[in-house]
Amino acid sequence: MIDLKYFQANFDEVASKLSKKKVTTEALEALKIAFAKLKEANNAFENCKAEQNMLSKEFGEMMKNKQDTTELKAKVDGNKITLNELQEIAREANTRLEELALNIPNIPDNSVPFGIDENDNIELRKVLEIPKFDFKPKEHWELCNDWIDFERGVKLAKSRFSVLKGDGARVERALINYFLDHNRTKGFHEFGLPLLNNAAMLQGTGQLPKFEDDLFKIEDEGLYLIPTAEVPLTNLYHDEIIDAKELPLLMTAYTPCFRKEAGSAGRDTRGIIRQHQFDKVEMVAIAHPSQSEEIFEMMVDNASELLTLLGLPHRVVELCGGDLGFSAARTIDLEVWLPGQNQYREISSISNTNEFQARRAKIRYKEDGKNSFVHTLNGSALAVGRTLVAIMENYQNEDGSIDIPEVLKKYLN
RNA sequence: CGGGAGAUGGUAGAGCGGUUGAAUACACCGGUCUUGAAAACCGGCGAGGGUCAUACCUCCGGGGGUUCGAAUCCCCCUCUCCCGGCCA
Could you tell me the CA-to-CA distances from A261 to A195, A227, A266 in Å, in that order? Predict the structure, then answer.
């Protein structure tokens, strides 16, 4: 949620920044009007309510003194009718405002480059040389049929589900352990989390109400399968006030993630790049605003280091405004080299949402007796399935066998 | 899934229709005292909105109702605890 008071006072500035995210001025005008209306409606209601409270007290006094209250009763009853009307107006104004405000994305940082889509993203650096093959490298689905069983995954569920078996499953598990162990050395505390979260939590991190179609929902429970561990990790502190001395809170968790992938029909239909269910190890930081920049860089470096230690070539990319997600003020993606596809593919996305999620999820810190919103950050470290793909493609041999990266060997005996 | 009890500030725990945002205790923060600490004493100590600041408004799990007036009465929902069934 954007800061409405700031928005109101700095309309042009916010509108200009949000244009990077393709938010129209009309949408913002509507928000501005709704906000003004709410204030007006609240004002009217509160004044009337104050009057009512006063009359009520008076009534109590008269009762105590056994005075005649008929006249006052008539007055109070009359006021009550207007009071109820004003309350209804205020409620509607509030509903309307929320409807609009919850659908406005976060304001991009000043440093975010202008751009329409991923083609306008800016490559910051490349890490590790792209490997040379003296044969034509295969894509991961052409490789190693004994690691992934696509057909049976579809049989068990539907398309975009798959089964890992044997060494595939073991390498997957090794990766999870490697990621978590490594994150721990950077100060991240590990969590095991519910994979079903309620609507309030998903609204807190920004998936709801706008992106309901992307989520798997358990209808009769009002619960959603998490699309990322960012949701439960960040919301661990939902509606809490944290002592500033405790910040930053660094958290990590392995979870499966579930996404409907509505709207990506036809994209990445082969292989396990884009599945309805995939494993991910996530980092989340809850930070004091003064720390968030530094922590953001640390998280990017950490994810990059995970890839480097695996010997996987990758590049670091700053997202342009048009490619930024709903909640993000700034995002850096890590893209890993896939020799079979002959291109870089996203394997991690690290975002700073500043106060955006904190406002929605009411996560505050207390410092010198004052409460303020924290900054929340999140990033993959790393997407496990895609790392598996990267290993398969980068470590493949001509005979189709796959070598194991050095750092994983201790996890595989 | 069936039966019972309950949901109040960081925690414990009063309040059961009237000026109570809420006693009390503990925790916590500041001060006095002390070489320092502890103890003792004094003071502060929920959140949101509103205002230059006050006024003022909202919140006692959530929603609705009764009433001039509700933390207090009624209804629904959610959650927690205890008993029974089922089960990893």
Answer: 18, 10, 10
